[in-house]
Amino acid sequence: MRYLKSQGYLIEVISSPWYGTNRFAFADEISNGGIFSNEFFRALAGATPLRILEPLMIRDLAQGELRNFERLAQSPTLRKPKFVFCHFLIPHDPYLFTADGRIKRYVRADAYWTRGEKEWKDMNGYVEQTLFAAKKTADTLKKVLDSYPTDQKPVILVQSDHGANVFGTGARSLRQAILNAYYFPDQSTAQLSPNISPVNSFRVVLNHFFEKKLDLLHNKSTYTTDGI
Questions:
Q1: What pLDDT is stored for residue 33 in this prediction?
Q2: Cβ(42)–Cβ(57) under 8 Å?
Q3: Residues of the chain with pLDDT under 50
């Protein structure tokens, strides 16, 4: 981000309920979630009489995700170059949406903190939310692309930070299997190998579009059970 700032880029961050997306030293604009987006507050509420507010929390979380899709769709600008970082909690639990985008009423809002493995075993909830997330993402990115003239299309990266958090046989390969998709307006794929990992994503972008000469790192993934 420091390099992009030096090149005159505006840095916009559209944050999610995950705390790691709320602090960006180089951000010019940060869009935060609703009042129940704080993970600690949700965990506290889930362990106290404040659980009575859970239906409100669920709706607030779901509406926050929908607002972020709207913010992303409205982010294009031709005034000056812009880098937009947008993070979504879905399709991660809690499973807020049905496949057709309806907000569920009976969901544990503190699932991320308190239920872990049990929550990931709700495969129907995971699949439904994944179907909704995939369609909503595709629709939103189409709006983004349609906002730019043909000769000024943006570079787009769509990545997940991890795969399904399942346990037992196949856990490692499923955990490390991620979505890692690229849209380059010039359709160049010379540096996009089939096994490219996120460690090289921005190296490829900077090399190709900014004529940098960064060495590509070894594409590898490390799996650990420490702390789980």
A1: 67
A2: yes
A3: 113-115, 228
Q: What phi and psi values does residue 97 have, to the nearest 5 degrees?
A: -120, 145
173/165 Cα distance (integer angstroms): 10
| Sequence-separated (6 or more) residues with CB below 8 Å from residue 111 | 93, 94, 119
3-state secondary structure of 89: coil
Among 195, 165, 164, 166, residue whose Cα is nearest residue 180 = 195
Q: What are the percentages of helix, strand and coil residues in the chain, rounded to 5?
A: 40, 10, 50
Residues 99, 195: Cα–Cα separation, whole Å:
30
- Identify the DSSP state of 102: P
pLDDT one-digit tens code per residue, 84-93:
999 998 998 8
Q: What is the pTM of this model?
A: 0.85
Alpha-carbon distance 18 to 87, whole Å?
9
Q: Residue 35's closest CA among 66, 56, 14?
A: 56
- CA pair distance 94, 46, nearest whole angstrom: 13
Nearest partner of 144 among 98, 197, 185, judged by Cα: 185
| Phi and psi angles of residue 14, each rounded to the nearest 5 degrees, phi first | -110, 100
pLDDT score of 35: 67
Rg of the chain on CA atoms, in Å: 19
pLDDT for 176 equals 79
* 82: its two tokens: 């812009």
Residues 6+ apart with CB under 8 A from 113: 39, 42, 43, 46
